[in-house]
């Protein structure tokens, strides 16, 4: 007979998932109700309102897609990119590359802006390219999880809108850990994930769309190629109609609700400062160990820190020892960073000074013995 599995207690300091607070885990275990139960529909309304506050938007089309962060990415692209649409995508890491792939699968004519991994795009250069190309959709990654780069956005959306396009932003790793000002930055569509700075288990992707983006969906000529992610139907379940589309992951929405309550209790400014303070403490300790950043120091994420692996240090051995001897998970590099960097996540519940103290102490001991 199969045995019941009891996973180890890990301190999750990789690129996600992040440590989950006890209150959020307890919320997962509440009694399951039907996805059209009045209690659950009321909870959905509260989730929407709290997500609007987190995205800093008045967008009515704000909801949680059933699926992880990449489901949110695919949802926005299949709804906004029609066959033949001109799509400008910034690629400076893994997740910009994924947006290219998705847009091409939607039939978009993709043009890329490229930067070395770990660097960000100059806003003026993006704006000039938008003026020249006049794309239908512009997609950028706000927080590039593969490199730790933190992309400035505040001036790009206005230029995209002036050129007649829609501005799509990946904020999977930034939402809840750094400001994401959807309305102020003229973002038309943004997606995130629950498993990063919200410190909720993976399984939902918060999204928000501007009235302009919704109008585009309503007026598109081609049928949306995904039934499951078709927002013209999904929104009728989240809206006043409450029209059944698919069975929502009820208990995951309980968990997201509780995670958002925690964000509300702390306050956005205090939460953002906590992430910055934790990162500053981490880098002070890493500098004492002789380590340096891989990403641009002037444009680096506080919640995802890419560390250059010292010469002569075996990446796999260090991460294995941290995991098996100390129950601490950190991430290895992806793509151009594979074997060259560690990715240390200080996300949500993990962005705390005692956590930083632990990982620095463990790293110091492992490196001394390697």
List its salient traits.
370 residues; alpha/beta; Aspartate Aminotransferase, domain 1; Aspartate Aminotransferase, domain 2; 2 domains; 7-stranded mixed beta sheet; 12 helices; 15% strand
What can you tell me about this protein's structure?
With 370 residues, the chain is an alpha/beta fold. It has 2 domains: 11-15 and 268-369, Aspartate Aminotransferase, domain 1; 22-264, Aspartate Aminotransferase, domain 2, CATH 3.40.640. It has 12 helices and 14 strands. Helix 2 crosses helix 9 and helix 10 runs parallel beside helix 12 (353-369). The mean pLDDT is 97.
Task: Describe the structure concisely.
The protein is α/β, with parallel strands linked by helices and 370 residues long. Helices cover 41% and strands 15% of the residues.
Strand residue content: 15-25%
Task: Please describe the biggest sheet, giving its number of strands, its sense, and whether it closes into a barrel.
Answer: 7 strands, mixed
Which architecture of the largest domain does the CATH hierarchy give at level 2? Answer: 3-Layer(aba) Sandwich
Helical residues, percent: 40-55%
Radius of gyration equals: 21 Å
Count of helical segments?
Answer: 12
Number of domains: 2
Mean pLDDT: 97
Distance between the termini: 41 Å
Strand order of the largest sheet: 2-10-9-8-5-3-4
What general form does the structure show?
globular
Structural class: alpha/beta
Would you tell me which CATH topology of the largest domain applies?
Aspartate Aminotransferase, domain 2
Q: Going by CATH, what is the homologous superfamily of the largest domain? A: Type I PLP-dependent aspartate aminotransferase-like (Major domain)
Spans where pLDDT lies below 50 across 5 or more residues? none
């Amino acid at each position: 007979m199969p045995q019941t599995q009891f996973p180890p207690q890990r301190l999750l300091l990789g690129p996600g998932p992040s440590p989950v607070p006890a209150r959020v885990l307890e919320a997962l275990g509440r009694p399951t109700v039907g996805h059209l139960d009045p209690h659950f529909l009321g909870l959905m309304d509260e989730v929407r309102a709290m997500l609007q506050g987190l995205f800093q938007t008045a967008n009515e089309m704000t909801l949680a897609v059933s699926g992880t962060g990449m489901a949110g990415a695919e949802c926005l692209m299949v709804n906004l990119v029609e066959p033949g649409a001109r799509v400008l995508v910034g690629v400076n890491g893994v997740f910009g590359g994924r947006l290219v792939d998705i847009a091409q699968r939607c039939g978009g004519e993709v043009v890329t802006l490229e930067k070395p991994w770990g660097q960000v795009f100059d806003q003026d250069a993006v704006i000039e390219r938008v003026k020249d190309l006049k794309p239908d959709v512009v997609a950028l990654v706000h927080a590039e999880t593969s490199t730790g780069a933190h992309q400035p956005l505040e001036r790009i959306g206005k230029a995209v809108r002036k050129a007649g396009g829609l501005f799509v932003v990946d904020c999977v790793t930034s939402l809840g850990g750094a400001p994401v000002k959807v309305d102020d930055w003229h973002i038309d569509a943004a997606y995130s994930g629950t498993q990063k700075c919200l410190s909720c288990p993976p399984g939902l992707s918060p999204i928000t769309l501007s009235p302009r983006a919704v109008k585009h969906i309503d007026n598109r000529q081609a049928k949306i190629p995904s039934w499951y992610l078709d927002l013209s139907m999904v929104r009728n379940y989240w809206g006043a109609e409450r029209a059944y589309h698919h069975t929502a992951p009820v208990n995951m929405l309980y968990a997201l609700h509780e995670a958002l309550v925690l964000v509300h209790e702390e306050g956005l400014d205090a939460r953002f400062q906590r992430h910055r303070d934790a990162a500053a403490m981490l880098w002070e300790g890493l500098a004492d160990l002789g380590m340096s950043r891989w990403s641009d120091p002037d444009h680096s994420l506080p919640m995802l820190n890419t560390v250059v692996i010292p010469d002569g240090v075996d990446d796999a051995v260090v991460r294995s020892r941290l995991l098996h001897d100390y129950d601490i998970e950190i991430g290895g590099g992806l793509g151009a960073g594979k074997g060259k960097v560690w990715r240390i996540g200080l996300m949500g519940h993990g962005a705390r000074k005692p956590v930083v103290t632990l990982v620095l102490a463990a790293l110091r001991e492992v490196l001394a013995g390697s």
